[in-house]
Design goal:
Order of helices and strands: HEEEEEEH
Strand order of the largest sheet: 1-2
Oligomer: single chain
Distance between the termini: 25 Å
Structural class: alpha+beta
Number of helices: 2
Strand content: 25-35%
Helix content: 10-25%
Radius of gyration: 15 Å
Largest sheet: 2 strands, antiparallel
Number of strands: 6
Length: 95
């Protein structure tokens, strides 16, 4: 997030992001309809991290899981998927 997207998120209570890969402001769910309604917004002691607790209108990831955090990092640094897919992203996100 940047200052503009944080302000918009806190004002509208809908998650708005600035992904570096897109290089533009983006309302979460504008493609899929799976918007994220902000329930709580927090920051850490350095104020360099924002944590949003959200209620989603459907699954919240373009890869088909209900959470962004569907993988666990193991001791050997391998990633283990710990959730089942909730939907087929190809059916939701059309090119």
């Amino acid at each position: 997030m940047n200052e503009t997207t944080l302000h918009r998120t806190l004002t509208t209570r809908l998650a708005t992001l600035f992904p570096r890969s897109r290089q533009k402001m983006w309302d979460k769910g504008e493609s899929s309809g799976h918007t994220q309604h902000v329930v709580d917004a927090r920051t850490d002691c350095d104020q360099d991290v924002v944590l949003l607790r959200c209620k989603s209108d459907g699954p919240c990831r373009h890869v088909g899981y209900t959470s962004c955090f569907y993988r666990r990092i193991e001791a050997d640094e391998a990633l283990t998927v710990i959730e089942d897919k909730a939907y087929d992203p190809d059916a939701v996100y059309k090119s």
